[in-house]
Known about the structure:
The protein has 13 helices and no strands. By secondary structure, it is an all-alpha fold. It has one domain: Fido-like domain (Fic-like fold), CATH 1.10.3290.10. Helix 4 runs antiparallel to helix 8, helix 8 crosses helix 11 and helix 12 crosses helix 13. The N and C termini lie close together (6 Å).
Amino acid sequence: MLHSGADPIAVLSEVEKEVIARSVHESNWQEGLYLDRGRTRELAEAVFESVGDVSGPHLDMEAVLEHHRKDVVALKRKGASIEEVAAHNLARAHVALRWIGGELMHRQTASLMHALEGFRKKYPELKAKMSAETQKTIERGFQVMENMKASALPIDVPITEGSETQGALLNKLLAQDFDTLLHPMRPAYVHFLHRITMMGIAHTGKCGVFRKTPVHVGNPELYFPPPSLVPKLMEQFCSDFPTILPGTVKYDPILMAAQASHKFVRIHPYADGNGRVSRLLMNLVLWKHHPPVYLKADKKGRHRYGQALRRADRGNTKPLAGLIGISLVEIYGKLLDAITP
């Protein structure tokens, strides 16, 4: 419980860190990587403290990966187990979700501004047919756009050279192709998450690289696409990835998160690590709507998760969405407990 003078924002930040650490623990346990929650939390805390070391003015994925590689090498030199490396990796991948989410949001914002710029060119000839109130509203929108383009706020995503403020970044993005801005999700982001998640665990040549071999599972009714189709399917997956720009979302983010996660698993684009990346993408869809979720990996939780995936294989993703909902109820309960005097 909080005392009345405690800072709610600071408390919420701490609860979010605890939820991420729990998500790391549960997601790795789903894959049979067993590490106790205390040690998982220690490794996650180290990641949270070191993310400020990565900086620069698009998302500089290579810089992030190099920083992460050095951390993984240092961990392994100290004798860290595979389970410990996996926990460290997944904690950093959760931090990277914020950076990917921020970049997607900037690009989707730029797509709206791109469309508005196109309208502004035709506005003078249309203005006479509009009421004074409508003109006022539209012109207020133009002013908001100009304020955003002039914003001196710093960029909270580690990016490459060229832009140091949000306004400068938006101006740079406005020069890009509209369709690229409208559908900003790319396979490169998914490769980025996979490389972070599997670094020091899988062979370097298989990190962030689509599988070259077929997938064999015990269930003869379960079909995974052949390797030759994976690149095209992932291009389509990214093209269909839901917008995450706050204020423009018209879908149920919980159901959409379940659908995106399951669709990724059914493509099974990598030789290993698909489950962990699928749950990261689940949280990317939820970004800016809900806190990160975890799907419990105890015996009962894994049974429920397995059942939900099998039902999703038959076209019903609502049970999987239900598990996300159950997790959110628990997480919001913790948040309320933390901020209630």
